[in-house]
Design goal:
Blueprint lengths: L1 E3 L7 H8 L5 E4 L8 E5 L2 E5 L12 E4 L4 E2 L1 H12 L9 E4 L3 E2 L2 H13 L12 H9 L14 H16 L8 H15 L3 E3 L1 H10 L4 E4 L24 H7 L10 E5 L2 E3 L12 H9 L12 E3 L1 E2 H11 L3 E5 L9 E10 L2 E3 L11 E8 L16 H14 L3 E5 L7 E3 L2
Parallel strand pairs: 1-11, 2-5, 2-10, 5-7, 6-8, 7-9, 11-15, 14-16, 15-19
Antiparallel strand pairs: 3-4, 12-13, 16-17, 16-18, 19-20
The structure holds guanosine-5'-diphosphate, 6-O-phosphoryl inosine monophosphate and magnesium ion (MG).
Length: 417
Amino acid sequence: MVLGLQWGDEGKGKIVDVLTPGYDIIARFQGGPNAGHSLHMGKESYVLHTIPSGIFRPEAVNVIGNGVVIDPATFAREVEELEKVVPQIASKILISKKAHLILPTHRILDAAQEASKGADKIGSTLKGIGPTYTDKTSRGGMRVGDLLSDDFAGRYNTIKTRHLAQAGQYAGDFDLAQLELEFFDGVQVMRRFTLIDSEQYLNDALVEGRSALAEGAQGTMLDIDFGTYPFVTSSNTVCAGACTGLGVAPAAIGAVKGIFKAYCTRVGNGPFPTELEDGDGEAMRKVGREFGATTGRARRCGWLDMVALRYAVMVNGVTELIMMKADVLSGFDTIRVCTGYSVGGQTVTSFPYEFTADMKPVYRDFRGWRREIGDVRSYDELPAELKEYIEYIEKECGAPVGIVSVGPDRDQTIVRR
Ligand code: GDP
Ligand code: IMO
Ligand code: MG
């Protein structure tokens, strides 16, 4: 398992790409094109939305599991882009027949629901994620396996009619004919791929001794159950989500690698206790290039939240931590970590049910380091202040930091053990 411990964009794409050579199979288990996973290899950069981040390594098989929601139009665009550099891409991706399809009208419904929320908007990526998962759980969705049905268009039209009635006036804001054109073109592209019962495939592979890495999307603080509800996404982003999203038993999950940034970011609305709306936050955004990989929105930035991180380690059963973007903090005189939330004269040190305006972060300060670290390739050569920061985090979380990432490139990675 590799998953995000914060509000997404921790650097999952980079790390999955780095780890892929050690695995036969890379599998996505939840989320959809709301995800944007960036990979940098020398001069080349890619952002993946639906396709697993193992796609650039020649040996790996990439599985899109049943827990994922797929927009055929986005999928086709991604395939078209990658085909230029990934030979025989159709032989490298297997798609679960049980994964659900995002229809054009799901995107319209997403926009309609956000608009109706007024000031309480989630800040959704508007990719149709919420309405697609809603249809899945209310037993009215379309699945990838329907692509093989003679009555695909008939089912599509029945659901479209229902959606348009629900969307009402908001449907008028969209060029549905154009969206449908892209959707049906995408459907044709998907039909070129092998559609499988991925739970059977994965379990057989594990019995044969092949290894698999599950790639999370979003992050623990965006989990539908454990995140900052209602400002979350519509799937289980936590480790347990891989069991339902891939059809593998809990006992089959081995190492759980939890990724976190050396600070925090969030895109979209909702609580973010350590958010910095000052020069420090601006510096993090600028140096860390904190702009959404899917929507281009500026990411909110703030100090590391240890209360939230410990909570994420707990609900995921993290066995190893991976620290990203340590390089972005080079140059800060003081590095701050939130160790609790002060409210009514008390300090809360466990993750609260909800955040209220009177909760203020309590900080512990660490000495910063001035040196650039992008070229460092061994843990011992990192600045002493950074090592002190890392060792504090390990102690607080009760898990070792196995990888420290010091830049966006594949090569800017320090593997410790
Ligand atoms: P994901 O959604 O978790 O895959 O993360 P994103 O790709 O959305 O966002 C992470 C961003 O940070 C991307 O632009 C990465 O290229 C970049 N990145 C990843 N690791 C590092 C790092 O160690 N240092 C710096 N400076 N950038 C990094
Ligand atoms: P990756 O995989 C960061 C956020 C949105 C919004 C909320 C709900 O790249 O880490 P949705 O589109 O799911 O209805 O949006 O979740 N969000 C993400 N934030 N990274 C992501 O994915 C995200 N996917 C969704 O901004 O606040
Ligand atoms: Mg991202």
